[in-house]
Each structure stands twice: as structure tokens, then as C-alpha cells.
């Protein structure tokens, strides 16, 4: 935007009811090329590129601010890299600004809110008791975590003036709220359709007007009455596309498509049956192996039990023989001494 007039515009129709702009990268690349053609002299060795870019965004709710920052700002930065790569084959970029990463200031304009401000001193109000144009509120009712401010840049023609809410989602140059407010308020005075300042930033205002203009062109195709040439042409095109997709789905483009498809289906069924049969046989083999292993385990356990019983009997037998041998040795020892009786017997009453 230069000289108080609106700059060139780019229009893109999104698919479906989406708040995020899908073609931001291509649109920004086009705008940067126009900037180069306008600002770079023909005799210059290097191209002239913008060092700062201010991006005013409108038409998104507060829940979409994070998506705008992660999607659209990323696409804008990718557009800078794309333009720099494309310029490498023609005029070069000044070494002072390599790599090309301009500073971005992204501000979202919020209009749908119920916040209103009134002057504390009536002498400071306008004829409708509204705040004067340029009134800014950047604390108390604003976010404690982000940069945002309310700016009433216009004079209400009737009723209570509604300020615009500006939410800063990117500030690479670390501009203060006062500088952003001053810049935004001055930009509001560049709207060419009004001799006074606009309700909100002129770039966003121009974007609204462009969307309304584009909607008028689309209405001839999407909302035209039945029987009109535009509506008939659109419906014929839509029907042709649907018919082509239906033919592709049903395989009518190839005469032999259905027999081939049937053969493929039969082959797949045979392969499936073979796989299922192999799985059943494998399961039966595994089951037989498990049963065999269980039988072998039972036999081993039985053999171990029998062996343990035999070993126990053998131990008892050996222990008995050992005890008897020791008793015999004890008896022989006492008998050789002349008294065959054991001392334990002498301690008891013994009657013959």
C-alpha cells in the first residue's frame, strides 16, 4: 500500500468452510515478486527485498490464533526461502541480508467482541459521548501473557463506538505496544473509500472488500438460478467429473476389466483358502506336539517319582544295616570287657 491507495491484491478460494488460508505461500511469493519489480531499478546488480513485513489477519476466532501462527506464518517464512532460491539464478541478493529472513509482525484484528469503552471525563468525549479516535487500552482488560491492545481508531456516526482488538502473534522486531498502536492507527487513515479513519486496519479492510468482490463472482456459479448458463455449465462439469470417477470405480474404461477383476478375486480366494488350510494343519501339528510333550513330561515325572521311592528304600535299608553293625560292634566291645551289659541297662531295674 503506497501513497494512501490500496495495493495489488490476491484472491484465493479455500476448499470448504475453512478459516486457515491454504495458499499463503504462493500468494506471498507473488507479492514479493511484485515488490521486486516495483522497487528494484533495472540497472541494479542486486534486488531490493523488504526487510520488515507487517501481516494483518482478519476473520479468525480466538481458538484459531495458534493455527494461524503455526500454519500461515510458517508458510510466509517458507515463501521467503523460495523467493531467495529463485533469485539465485537471476539477480543476486545482497550479502548483507543473506540468508533472506525478514522480520515479521503478525497482528490479528478482532471485531466480534462485546468490549466497549467510555470516557471518564465527558469533556474528553465526542458528540456521542464516545472516546475520541486514537484511544488505546493495553492493560487491565488485555491478556497478561501476550501482546494485545484495543484501539478505537474511528468516530462512530451513531451509537456507541466499538474498538478493534489487535492481538500480536508474531513480533520479530520486538516493537513496543505503543509503536504498534501508532502504526496501526496511522494505517487506519489510509483507507481510500473514506475521508476519515477506518474502524480497523486498512489492509484487513481491503481483504474483506476483496473477499466480498470474489464472492460476487462465485455466486454466479454456486448460487445462480437453475437454467442460467453459468449454473448449467457448472452442473455439466460436475456431472462429467462424477461420471468419470464412477466409470473408473466400476472399471468400464477397460472391456476386460471385469473378467480380470473376477479372476483376481478368485485367485485371492484360493490363496486365502490355502493359507487357512495351512494354518489349520500347522495348528494341528502344534497341538500334537504339545500333547506328545505333555505325555513325555508325565512319563518323566512318573519315572522320577519311582526312582525317588527306590532311592528312599535303598537309603532306609543302608541306614538299618549301618545301625545294626554299629550295635554289634558296641556289644562285642562290652562283652570283651567281661560285662556284656550296656551301662544303660544297669541304670534300670532288671528282673531275671
Plain-language structure description:
There is one protein chain. The protein is α+β, with helices and mostly antiparallel strands and 352 residues long. The chain contains 7 helices and 5 strands; from the N terminus they run αβαββββααααα. The protein has helices at 24-39, 65-87, 177-187, 202-222, 229-250, 257-336, 343-346; strands spanning 52-58, 103-110, 135-137, 147-152, 164-171. A 5-stranded mixed β-sheet has the order 1-2-5-4-3. α2 (65-87) links the parallel β1 and β2 (103-110). The chain is elongated, with a radius of gyration of 47 Å. It comes from Pseudopithomyces chartarum.
Mean pLDDT: 80
Low-confidence stretches: 1-5
Cα shape: elongated
The radius of gyration over CA amounts to 47 Å
SSE class: alpha+beta
Topology:
Elements: H1 24-39, E1 52-58, H2 65-87, E2 103-110, E3 135-137, E4 147-152, E5 164-171, H3 177-187, H4 202-222, H5 229-250, H6 257-336, H7 343-346
Parallel strand pairs: 1-2
Antiparallel strand pairs: 2-5, 3-4, 4-5
Helix pairs in contact: 1-2
Key terms:
elongated; 9% strand; Piwi domain-containing protein; 7 helices; nucleic acid binding; RNaseH_sf; alpha+beta; 352 residues; disordered N terminus; 5-stranded mixed β-sheet
Amino acid at each position: 500500500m503506497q501513497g494512501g491507495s490500496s495495493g495489488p491484491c490476491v484472491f484465493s478460494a479455500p476448499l470448504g468452510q475453512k478459516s486457515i488460508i491454504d495458499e499463503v505461500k504462493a500468494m506471498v511469493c507473488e507479492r514479493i515478486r511484485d515488490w521486486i519489480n516495483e522497487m528494484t531499478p533495472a540497472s541494479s546488480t542486486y534486488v531490493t527485498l523488504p526487510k520488515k513485513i507487517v501481516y494483518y489477519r482478519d476473520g479468525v476466532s480466538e481458538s484459531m490464533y495458534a493455527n494461524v501462527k503455526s500454519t500461515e506464518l510458517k508458510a510466509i517464512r517458507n515463501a521467503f526461502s523460495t523467493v531467495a532460491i529463485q533469485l539465485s539464478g537471476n539477480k543476486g541478493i545482497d550479502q548483507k541480508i543473506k540468508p533472506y529472513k525478514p522480520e515479521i509482525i503478525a497482528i490479528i484484528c478482532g471485531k466480534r467482541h462485546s468490549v466497549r469503552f467510555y470516557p471518564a471525563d465527558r469533556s474528553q468525549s465526542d458528540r456521542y459521548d464516545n472516546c475520541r479516535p486514537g484511544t488505546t487500552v493495553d492493560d487491565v482488560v488485555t491478556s497478561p501473557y501476550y501482546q494485545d491492545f484495543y484501539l478505537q481508531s474511528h468516530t462512530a456516526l451513531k451509537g456507541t463506538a466499538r474498538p478493534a482488538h489487535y492481538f500480536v502473534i508474531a513480533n520479530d522486531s520486538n516493537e513496543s505496544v505503543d509503536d504498534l498502536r501508532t502504526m496501526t492507527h496511522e494505517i487506519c487513515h489510509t483507507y481510500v473509500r473514506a475521508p476519515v479513519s477506518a474502524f480497523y486496519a486498512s489492509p484487513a479492510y481491503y481483504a474483506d472488500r476483496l473477499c466480498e468482490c470474489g464472492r460476487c463472482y462465485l455466486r454466479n456459479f454456486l448460487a445462480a438460478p437453475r437454467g442460467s448458463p453459468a449454473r448449467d455449465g457448472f452442473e455439466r462439469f460436475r456431472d462429467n467429473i462424477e461420471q468419470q470417477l464412477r466409470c473408473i470405480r466400476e472399471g468400464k474404461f477397460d472391456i476386460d476389466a471385469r473378467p480380470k477383476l473376477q479372476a483376481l478375486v478368485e485367485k485371492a480366494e484360493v490363496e486365502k483358502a490355502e493359507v487357512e488350510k495351512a494354518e489349520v494343519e500347522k495348528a494341528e501339528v502344534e497341538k500334537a506336539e504339545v500333547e506328545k510333550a505333555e505325555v513325555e513330561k508325565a512319563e518323566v515325572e512318573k519315572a522320577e517319582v519311582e526312582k525317588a521311592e527306590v532311592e528312599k528304600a535303598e537309603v532306609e535299608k543302608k541306614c538299618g544295616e549301618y545301625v545294626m553293625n554299629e550295635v554289634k560292634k558296641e556289644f562285642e566291645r562290652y562283652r570283651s570287657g567281661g560285662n556284656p551289659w550296656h551301662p544303660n541297662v544297669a541304670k534300670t531295674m532288671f528282673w531275671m
